[in-house]
Specification:
Blueprint lengths: L2 H21 L26 E14 L2 E5 L3 E10 L3 E5 L11 E3 L3 H5 L10 H15 L6 E6 L7 E3 H6 L5 E10 L8 E2 L6 E5 L3 E2 L2 E2 L4 E5 L4 E11 L7 E2 L8 H8 L8 E12 H6 L3
Antiparallel strand pairs: 1-2, 1-3, 1-16, 3-4, 4-7, 5-6, 6-8, 7-8, 8-9, 8-10, 9-15, 11-12, 13-14, 14-16
Length: 289
């Protein structure tokens, strides 16, 4: 038996053994039955006292002069740590999707964001912007999605259940940024950023002309899960920064900011219609399958 054959055979055996070992790895335990909804809660973290799943099923977000309706359900989820005296801090979901990246269609697409004929002037900069704008639209790829993302760690998200139930004060603090998605806008076109987030201080009470509501609370799973349905969180007092990173080298930033009237310190609003689920972390752990 040659040395080369021995080396080849050894490599085959090692590779096969590795594959078997990988295949034999035990599956990660997750809660079963009615508690399966909390599969991404880090309930085995000794600091985590509760689990949260909050589903925003409808509503709208207005930034500057653009309003995007929420038509696809977006989920906020993770663990909860109690904060004195009454608040709760979010802990990141096990799979990293603390706030699901759920795209919502921007009405009008690129045409709703950019009007090439509004780029006036005869200077080199204006001519370049106008030519670039017209070139983009000739491609016919005009649909735009807006995807809300967290602009800070999960620990920057705070829940105040007393404020939520009493319909008074800040019930949910949520730092976000909004990605505008279209092949022509590039991969880094955002309203807001980690450095300059859109900070929503949402209430079930009154914010300007908006009125939220706490909704109804029901016990599920023999009292182990609290469901809060028909909940509406609102805010109209936040600032929206301008867009950055849109188009090649950010060349569309100025055009889109002008069209959307960004940055905007007033006139913005958020209306989130939700269904929330909470459970004690220990109880969720007891229902692992």
């Amino acid at each position: 038996m040659t040395n080369k054959y021995v080396m080849w055979l050894t490599a085959v055996i090692v590779t096969a053994g590795t594959a078997l070992a990988v295949g034999a790895a035990p599956a990660v335990a997750t809660p079963a039955g009615e508690y399966a909804i909390f599969a991404q809660c880090p309930y085995n973290n000794p600091e985590v006292e509760g689990c949260l799943v909050s589903r925003t099923e409808s509503g709208e977000v207005k930034l500057g002069d653009s309003t995007v309706p929420i038509v696809r359900t977006q989920t906020l989820q993770g663990g909860l740590i109690n904060e004195e005296p009454i608040g709760k801090m979010l802990v990141a979901a096990r799979n990293g999707e603390t706030l699901s990246k759920t795209p919502q269609k921007v009405p009008g697409g690129l045409a709703g964001l950019v009007k090439c004929d509004e780029i006036t002037g005869s200077g080199l900069a204006e001519i370049t912007e106008r030519v670039l704008c017209e070139t983009l639209f000739e491609n016919g790829v005009t649909g735009v999605n807006a995807t809300t993302e967290l602009a800070a760690p999960a620990s920057a998200v705070h829940l105040n259940e007393l404020a939520l139930k009493n319909e008074e004060g800040v019930a949910l603090t949520l730092p976000i940024k909004v990605k505008l998605e279209n092949p022509l806008l590039g991969s880094e076109c955002y309203i807001g950023s980690n450095a300059h987030p859109i900070t929503l201080e949402l209430t079930t009470g009154t914010s300007g002309t908006l009125k939220g509501k706490a909704g109804t609370f029901n016990d599920e799973a023999e009292g182990g899960i609290v469901e809060n349905s028909g909940n509406t969180l609102v805010e109209s007092n936040f600032a929206a920064p301008g867009v950055t990173g849109c188009g090649p080298l950010g060349l569309l930033d100025g055009i889109i900011n002008a069209k959307l009237e960004l940055p905007a310190s007033t006139g913005n609003k958020a209306v989130l219609n939700n269904t929330n689920f909470q459970a004690n972390a220990e109880i969720v752990a007891e229902h692992e399958s």
